[in-house]
Amino acid sequence: MTANTPLPGADDAPAASTAEAKPHPGRRSFLIGAGSGAAATALAATGAFAANQPDAPTTTAAPTSSPEVPFHGANQAGVYRPAAQQRQACFVSFRVLARDQSELKTLLQSLTAQGAKLAAGLRASDPVPSEDLPAIAGGPPVNSGVLGDDVPPDSFTMTVGLSAGVFDNPAYKLAGKKPKGLTEMTVFPNDTPDPAWTGGDLLLQLCADSTDMIHYSLREITKATRGALALQWRINGFHSAPRPTGSPRNLFGYKDGIVNPAADDQLVWIEKGAGQPDWAVGGTFIVVRLIRMLVEFWDRVGLGEQDGMIGRHRVSGAPLGGTAETDTPDYAHDPNGDTIPLDAHIRLANPRTKATDRSRLLRRGYNYDLGVDLNGNMQAGLIFASYQRDIQKQFEATQLRLVDEPMTDYIEPFGGGYFIGLPGVAKAGGFLGEGLFA
Amino acid sequence: MTDPLPAPAQTMSAAITSYRGYVNGKLDMLTGQVLTLKASIGNNDLDAARRQWLDAQLTWQRVGAAYGSFGELGDAINGLPNGLPKGTSDPGFTGLHRIEFGLYNGQGPGQLTPVAATLLADIDKLRGQLNALTIDPTDLPIRCHEILEDSLRDNLSGNNDQGSGMALALTAADVDGTRVVLAILGAMINRLHPGYAATVSTSVDRLANALAGTRTDGQWPVYRTAALSVRQPVTGALGAALELLAFVPVLFSSDD
Asked: Is B253 on the interface with A (CB under 8 A)?
């Protein structure tokens, strides 16, 4: 071994050393940067050669990988970026174990480096940044190898949120930076909160198009942040393929997520002058709700009653009385609920009135399928995730309209939390939550 | 409770000699503790026996016999019912955890006196063999992280708990054992990589502090029922220490 090779934490810094914590350009961009060099040329030539081999042995081909979703931007990825929601997700809540503000900052730098690295993907042939090199030859490998040598970008996004607990912890001296309206998750009348699935200090929303990428990324991130983050709860979710077209279906069999506000509607990102601390501009409030769906019970209900509870036709996804899922329900001409019942879910959630227009929110939920409940039922449901600039005026206003809706008999919200999704990292060199330490 | 740490060794053979001396002392202590424990069991003073079992178990943890390093004798002294056809009632389930099982599951002198006698005999056998036991030069560096890997794998998973719930106490004793091995190897670690002994010691100290923080009035909480918020600082600090300790054996296995 060479005596000057840095071991992890060999200086006085905690496990994530400063060098390790600095975001670095992805390997791919490094290679592109060296584009005129022989290495890039050789790689391109090899690729062309392989593609033109007519007699290449047939093996099971690796699935075509999804493209890279840029990590850097004014806002975090995983909300509006990429436009098409990824197929797989993991929502993880951690307790932050950092002992002071400086350790918290190091943690966020470390997360930033991981998020950027995982989003870019890497090829085994790419140069490995020095901070990722094994400290000593023969030591544990740099990564788990779960994805093989080449780690695809796979549309990976990492979205980070902090709960009120972080701002309330005097060790971090961030009380003055606490966003307005960031509270513990409200317990609504139909909720059955389970402490094992509720709260936490830091939310990671990991999305990608493959389940192994989700596993790999969480494993990389927890290794890089060992001792600073403790897993609290985590749940994997899947976003179904369209059946047969249009919006994917939830586990009640209904198309879900049909109506979402566009970025231009200015309902999601926190803007300057909105009464929130400056550091939070470009962030968004994230609400995660773990909602068990009593699917066996639901399956014993007639289709007409199901349609009435949702307010849509199950087959087409169209609002009752309509023909296409994109049809706009016409509540003005249905004041008594003859076509769409007044207590139908879609009608309560979004009454489409001027007064409720600003309570719309962006949803990006995932189905989950966990195991077996005590009563022998399948435990399955929805990881509801919404993004809004104001929890009270958007999520809570919507949720309060839904109290005691007929569908509540078939669902059981049992976990989740409220988080401030950090502003994006505009460019390399910055880190998530940088404004907190300004 | 914590003894002064051994002096750093300058060579691996000196380290092995030092460690052997340390283990000899611990086995002497263990013999005395198990004699006392056996007497309490014989007198049906099971409250005392439960305290004395813990004393003995902690002494064994401090030996630092990670990953079955004493072979079959180690299993006889500290084995678990896992993998035995009849589980906890299997005659192959012997030793400290067998006594723990009995003391926390309504057994008394009838069942436990012979177990304690066998345990004493096994400890005696190990003492007799210890000086002849070959210790591989790679063994001590590996223990630097495997003692605490055992803590995570066996204690803090709940896997080795036979009813006492003392996983945190056992882990704290594992920390003591790790500190002994690190103290013996410290000078050599620093020679291979200047400053690294202090780096790992800092992480182990942080773990020790996290463990101490779980105690109330000097009592360890029962691990299985301890709140997640009590466990997280310990498992977090343990994970962080392990990531650093994992490089210690690598340092010693490098040729150049």
From this structure: yes
Please, are residues A172 and A101 in contact by the beta-carbon 8 Å criterion? yes
Domains present along chain B, CATH in parentheses: 12-253 (1.20.1420.20)
- Match 């004699």 to its residue by tokens: B35
How far is residue B138's CA from residue B181's CA, in Å, rounded to a whole number? 12
Question: How many whole angstroms separate alpha carbon A92 and alpha carbon A233?
Answer: 6
Residues of A at the B interface, defined by Cβ within 8 angstroms: 1, 3, 7-11, 14-15, 95, 97, 135-140, 196, 223, 226-230, 232
ipTM exceeding 0.95, yes/no: no
Helices B228-245 and B167-192, packing angle to 10 deg: 20
| B194 close contact with A: CB closer than 8 A | yes
Instruction: Show pLDDT as tens, one digit a residue, over chain B (256 residues).
Output: 567 899 999 999 999 999 999 999 999 999 999 999 999 999 999 999 999 999 999 999 999 876 667 889 999 999 999 999 999 999 999 999 999 999 999 999 999 999 999 999 999 999 999 888 888 888 999 999 999 999 999 999 999 999 999 999 999 999 999 999 999 999 999 999 999 999 999 999 999 999 999 999 999 999 999 999 999 999 999 999 999 999 999 999 855 4
Residue A7's identity, in one-letter code, is L
**Contact criterion met (CB below 8 Å) for A365 and A392:** no
- Nearest Cα residue in chain A from B189: A3
Interface test with A, best of B145, B206, B247, B255 (most A CBs within 10 A): B247
Q: Where are the domains of chain A?
A: 73-438
Residue A273 φ/ψ, nearest 5 degrees: 80, 10
Tell me the nearest-neighbour CA distance from B191 into chain A, angstroms.
9
Phi then psi dihedrals of residue A100, to 5 deg: -150, 180
Q: Please answer whether residues A317 and A246 qualify as being in contact, where contact means their C-beta atoms are separated by less than 8 angstroms.
A: yes
Q: Measured between CA atoms, how close is A228 to chain B, in angstroms?
A: 7
Q: Is any Cβ of chain A less than 8 angstroms from the Cβ of B226?
A: no
- Residue B96 burial (C-beta neighbours within 10 Å; 0-12, 13-18, 19+): buried
